[in-house]
Design brief:
Elements (H helix, E strand, L loop, with lengths): L13 H14 L9 E2 L1 H8 L3 H13 L3 E4 L3 E4 L4 H24 L5 H18 L5 H23 L2 H21 L3 H19 L3 H24 L1
């Protein structure tokens, strides 16, 4: 008698675990590319589960803008156009600027926080200057970038801002997957984080917001240049 192989996940919170797995595979591992078809059956067989939790997980990712469902065609990794990206960066700057005001106005960052944040920047710079393949560097860089900004958002104590900004960063990650930014742009973008932290440490909210805008604009400029070529 054939013995069924064990599922990779327990049944507790199965939909959430599958969604986390697919986010990792799409946004960080490099397995899926933007516009690529995601086969429900393939994922279900890989994880040794039914298609139902895979379908529910993909719905969650669709709500987060990571995938698109097309009737009679299936589910595909989302692709962002110029207008999508512009709207995303506008929303991000508006909310993250308010987060900076809260951090400075309420003194929510201390020496240990700044040490932690500088450590993440050091890792971003090291990754961006490494000899690893470009796609691998972009994946590693963007993962540390999310950790850096998420740490700041969490310290603000604003849960809805954290939720919205987290979802937006999924879209920014997709944009980086599409554009494959140049190495020198990645290094410059990483180093800009030092300037943001320097101003936060001096309680200079306006200066920190200006540096944040420069950082975001550097990604916007690179995307615009890519689309114009």
């Amino acid at each position: 008698m054939k013995v069924a192989s064990k599922s990779r996940f327990s049944h507790e919170n199965l939909n959430r675990k599958v969604a986390e797995y697919l986010r990792e595979e799409i946004l960080w591992s490099g397995r899926f590319k933007t516009g690529q078809h995601i086969q429900e059956m393939e994922i279900a067989e890989e994880l040794n589960i039914s298609r139902a939790p895979v379908r529910e997980a993909l719905r969650e990712l669709e709500h987060q803008g990571i995938v698109n469902y097309l009737p009679r065609r299936g589910t595909f990794v989302a692709t962002l156009d110029h207008d999508d990206f512009q709207e995303i960066v506008d929303i991000r700057f508006m909310i993250e600027s308010r987060v900076i005001d809260i951090l400075v106005g309420e003194g929510k960052l201390g020496p240990e926080d700044f040490s932690r944040l500088r450590g993440l920047i050091d890792q971003m710079v090291s990754i961006s200057r490494s000899d690893s393949p470009l796609e691998e560097k972009i994946s590693g860089y963007s993962e540390k970038d999310v950790q850096f900004h998420r740490y700041i958002w969490e310290r603000s104590g604003r849960k809805w801002s954290l939720k919205i900004l987290t979802d937006i960063f999924y879209q920014l990650r997709l944009a980086m997957m599409q554009d494959m930014i140049l190495e020198q742009d990645m290094v410059r973008s990483a180093e800009m984080h030092y300037e943001i932290i320097d101003r936060l440490e001096k309680s200079d909210a306006e200066g920190a917001k200006k540096m944040l805008l420069r950082h975001i604009f550097s990604l916007w400029k690179e995307r615009s240049r890519t689309e114009d070529t």
